[in-house]
């Protein structure tokens, strides 16, 4: 393949631009804010899960407290009724004995229910503290996500602005290159390699390796418009500039 030496020289600039684009792409995908944001989002999920568990437990305890209150009210109402019957006239000795026994049973039942209610209320108070704590953790974690999202977006915007400039520079360079020379360059670049490099003394500017003397002699004796490739990495070797 042959190409004007001026066109070949543009390949070095193109390779530099492509290298910068690659660095910008890598930098964008490895921003420290990305990992930090992932961790912060996990903290939000963990905090929300804890909050939901606490809310569920609080709801269960509230229902238990309400149920116990109803049971205690029922016992109190039954006690009041029995006391009223016992105090009334026309109650025989047997009925009075039965009522007295029932009142004692109701009193024990009320004591058990009230003790249970007290225990549940104490647990509910502890869960209330946990709810406040988990709510604070959710708020703090969400604030961290918001702050990190802003930092990430700002960093990405800076990188994207630089990338846009490099993309424009690349488009201008590509437009000035012969199609066959560009195709050769892109074929090499598609392999994940630096596609062009300046020949500096006896080193390839793409792979930085020292080249064989015999090969160098062939390169230097080639016509100026011959497109030559590094024997080590395959990059287009640009001679003179």
From TrEMBL:
Q: Which residues form the C4-type zinc ribbon domain?
A: 203-237
Supply the name of the protein. C4-type zinc ribbon domain-containing protein
Cross-referenced Pfam families: CT398_CC, Zn_ribbon_9
InterPro entries documented for this protein: CT398_CC_hairpin, Oxidative_Scav/Glycosyltrans, Zf-RING_7
Question: Acetylation among the record's keywords?
Answer: no
Organism for this UniProt entry: Pseudonocardia spirodelae
PANTHER family tied to this protein = PHOSPHOLIPASE C-BETA-2-RELATED, SCAVENGER RECEPTOR CLASS A MEMBER 3
User: Which residue numbers delimit the CT398-like coiled coil hairpin domain?
Assistant: 14-192
The highest taxon in the source lineage is: Bacteria
User: Is Ribonucleoprotein found in the keyword set?
Assistant: no
Q: Enumerate the UniProt keywords alphabetically.
A: Coiled coil
Q: Which residues form a coiled coil?
A: 37-158
